[in-house]
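Structure tokens please, single chain.
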Amino acid sequence: MTITIIGSGAIGGVLGAHLVRGGNKVIFCDIVEEHVEKINNEGLTIEGPDEIFTVRGTAYTPEELAKKNQILDTVFLCVKAHHTEEALRPFLALLDKNSQVVSLQNGLCERQISNLIGAKRTIGCFVNFSADYLEPGRILYGGVASLYLGELNGEITPRILNLKEKLQCWGPVQVTDNIWGYLWGKMSYAGLLYSTALVDETMAGVVQKQELRETLMELCSEILETADKESVSPLGFDDWEPSLVYPRQKRDKEKLDLQLKKLTNRMASNKKTKSGIWRDLAVRKRKTEVDAQLVPILEIAKNHRLDTPLLSALVTTIKEIEDGTKQMSWDNLYELKKIYQSLPNKVS
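Here you go.
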């Protein structure tokens, strides 16, 4: 099996480097020419919490890879959610009936991929480890966390088990019959992470603020309620437990506070203390993935006639920070709190 990694930055670079070190055949593909050159000439360096290592690899730009005109066996799609279609489309002619595309992305990208190539060639993946592309040939890795593989229809198939075995060189990969549960669970967590990027503060610093807790949990509940309307049961991971947040009526404040304390401890101990969303806004000065991650949830909620005032306000504020009409500030979070306090059926 040859694994082609389209998008060899944070997630793709980390997994690809571990796969190469584990003796697997890997082809890296990335739009950044300097990154491609670095991988080919000097190697790809992963700076993790426990070790720093470099692997030599074979890398191409998308144009170079397409010109090779070779069938792609297994593709790991590791691009930002809003680049899904433009990243995959140049390679559609290189996918045969046995090809498989694994979505190692944040969002519900499997919906978009399966529309392009069919559900049978699409494999779902939930990935939660943190990593940052620092510069060509150099990636910061936060450490092992959760990674689940799953067929979109819930079957446990030989190809899923084979991929799990391949990825053991990275860490404790698992398979699941409810990949949509993990993906929606991650989306509820994404709502929380986006809120932490409204201010120039660590993730833990925002989540542990008690006066904002009910507001943030209602924000997450809007996403979880949308999942419920989609007949999905969201699942927890890495100290994030959706079942303690939603349904609202069953929320136990003491248990939730205890769990969130565990979550903030995890956040604070991670080598990456601020989110990739924060980095997009504050460091890279580029658009986030909000249009591909949270906006589709607003659309799904609208189809179910659900009100999502906090999620809508969060999306609006993120976009305002993107275009420079607002700055990161605690005021942004307290504006969300005002909206929450105005809700007629808020949880007290």
